[in-house]
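Q: I'm writing a short explainer about DUF805 domain-containing protein for a general audience and would like to include a description of its predicted shape. Could you first generate the structure from this sequence?
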Amino acid sequence: MIEATKLFWTHVFDFQTRSTRSDFWWAALGNIILSIIVSFVAGLIFGNSTAGSAAYSIIYGIVGFLYLIATISIVVRRLHDINRSGGWWWIQLIPIVGGIILLVFELTATVEVGNRYPKMER
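A: Of course. Here's the predicted structure. Afterward I'll give you a sentence or two in plain language.
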C-alpha cells in the first residue's frame, strides 16, 4: 500500500504508462488513510482561528488540485493497463451508467498480450 501510494504521488503527471489493478486500489486505500491523518493533523495545527482557516483553505485547495490531477492520471493509466485509451475517462460523465462502466474497467484484469501502452518504471 505504501509503495502504491508513493507511485500515485510521484507519477502525478504521467498519462502515458500503465498502473496495475493492485497499484490502483492500494493507492486508493492509502490515500483515504493519508487524508484522514492529514485532516486530523491540520485540525490540530490550524484550529478554529480565522487566520488558521484561511491558511488551511489555501493549502487544502492546492493539495486538492494536485489530488484531482493525480486521480485523473491514475485512472488513465489504469485504462491503459487494460489496453483502452485514456479518453474512456470521460465515460463517467454519463449519469449512473458511466460510473458503473468505469468501475468495471477499473476492476478488469491487466491485458498483457497486444497492449500498446508501456509499463510504468518503478
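A: For your explainer, you could say: The longest helix spans residues 50-81.
Q: Perfect, that's easy to follow.
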